[in-house]
Amino acid sequence: MVNKYDALRVKGEINLELYESQVIEIIREQVGSDKVLLALSGGVDSSVCAALLEKAVPGKLQCVFVDHGFMRKNEGETIEKTFKGRNLELVCIDAKDRFLARLVGVTDPEKKRKIIGEEFIRVFEEHAKTLSGNYYLAQGTIYADVVESGTDGVVKIKSHHNVGGLPSTMDFKGLVEPLRALKKPEVRILGWHLGLPAALTERQPFPGPGLAVRCLGEVTNDKLDVLKEADAIFCEEIENSDIRPSQYFAALMDTHSVGIVNDARSYGNVVALRAVKSTDFMTAEYVQLPYDLLSRVSERITSEIPGITRVVYDISNKPPSTVEWE
């Protein structure tokens, strides 16, 4: 049975001017006199979802940012600063230790996604028990998440933590997912209609499991520290250039490579760089970054971050590859 949010896409092409009023009506009918907890990550989808819910059920929304420890360098602090300056009730929960503990020894990407998805729900359930009233859980799930998780009648590609990664039982009245029918460009346009600044609506996508699926193999604090620094260097160089990929990031490989450091043999980490262009992220093409940019990034990463001996650039399109490595 198609739910009312999905039905907005099933009916055909989406008229975004009409969509806002249609989905607000569905939200109000679903929530009724109850309240909503929104999983706010600071990305485009959850930010637009927050603005939409605040308009649909004013005074009934609480936004919760769960810092799972897999954010980019300094991103947790940036998210808190950005949203505490808006007219939203925001709660920040530091859950780094519990998420990392759940991933000890885990190397399979699907297991990572499912564990992170379940742990998100458990954190929200625990928080909800401290509140009075009945709550729905809201997520910024979009059409691509549904399709790739295999819940739209197609073969599963990967379980997005907010769809295929959800546990079978949850202590909430239900899920509110007002963006399920929208593709990424439509989400951005809706955000613009809702008055969100370009700094939010034009952000590049970031996976819900964060760096946990860009840190191949087992996730550890040491590996995350290396990855955060490498990713920060790559992002800084891209943002200082005149090139604007749709998405760009570094990934830390689950392998080592021989190198030379201080005229001696070294056996260090391998970092892969990824930059793609896409309109809806259902498909994507790799960006042909200039060699001088790639050389500068490689030189900075290998010289500024101890333990990295090799940097490679991913020139795979989607399909056959996905944007993320895991």
How many E-type strands? Answer: 9
Helix % is: 25-40%
**Rg of Cα set:** 20 Å
The fraction of residues in strands falls at 15-25%
Query: Structural class from helices and strands?
Result: alpha/beta
Low-confidence stretches: 152-165
Shape: globular
Strand order of the largest sheet: 3-2-1-4-5
Order of helices and strands: HHEHEHEHHEHEHHHEEEHE
Biggest sheet, open or closed, and with what strands and sense? 5 strands, parallel
The overall pLDDT average reads 89
Distance between the termini: 30 Å
Number of helices: 11
Describe the overall structure.
The protein has 326 residues and is of the alpha/beta class. The protein is 39% helix and 18% strand. The chain has eleven helices and nine strands. It has helices at residues 4-10, 16-31, 44-56, 75-84, 96-102, 109-128, 143-148, 184-193, 198-201, 221-239, 291-304; strands at residues 35-39, 61-67, 90-94, 135-138, 175-176, 247-261, 264-277, 285-286, 308-313. It has a five-stranded parallel sheet, sandwiched between helices. Strands 6, 7, 8 and 9 form a four-stranded mixed sheet that branches. The longest helix is centred in the middle third of the chain and has 20 residues, at 109-128. The radius of gyration is 20 Å and the shape is globular. Residues 152-165 have low confidence and may be disordered.
